[in-house]
Write a structure and sequence with these properties.
By secondary structure, the protein is mainly α. The chain has one domain. The chain is about 70% helix and about 0% strand. It contains five helices and no strands. The N and C termini lie far apart (about 60 Å). About 10% of the residues are buried.
Length: about 120
């Protein structure tokens, strides 16, 4: 005879909003989302770094741009990327202003996607 899984065992594979809709009350969904977010950040960041390296050799890709985007993404996870990005910002103040404006636009875009309200 097969034993059935615990009643909320499926909740850990769902997003918190879906888990709330179906009645999951444990916090395993949140822990999975944090872990999944970290994996996605690392994959996207390293993907941009690889595109940047390829772009240094191919004339159709902007290698430096992809490297900077990859560094900006990875700076939230790696200390070395954060230090390298801050050194680049000190060395190139115009790049710093452009990066700050792009960061503000990206944050606004992410807030719209996630339907969060802008802080007052």
């Amino acid at each position: 005879m097969l034993s059935s899984p615990p009643p909320n065992n499926h909740c850990r594979y769902l997003s918190p909003s879906v888990a709330t809709l179906i009645g999951c009350s444990d916090n395993t969904c949140i822990g999975m989302n944090i872990h999944l977010k970290r994996i996605v950040v690392l994959l996207v960041g390293w993907g941009f770094i690889l595109l940047g390296i390829v772009g240094l050799f191919l004339p159709i890709l902007q290698g430096i741009l992809f490297l900077l985007i990859g560094l900006a993404i990875l700076s939230s996870e790696y200390v070395w990327a954060h230090h390298l990005l801050s050194k680049l910002r000190q060395r190139f103040p115009r790049l710093d202003r452009t990066a700050n404006a792009a960061t503000a636009k990206a944050a606004a875009w992410l807030r719209r996607l996630s339907r969060d309200r802008e802080p007052d």
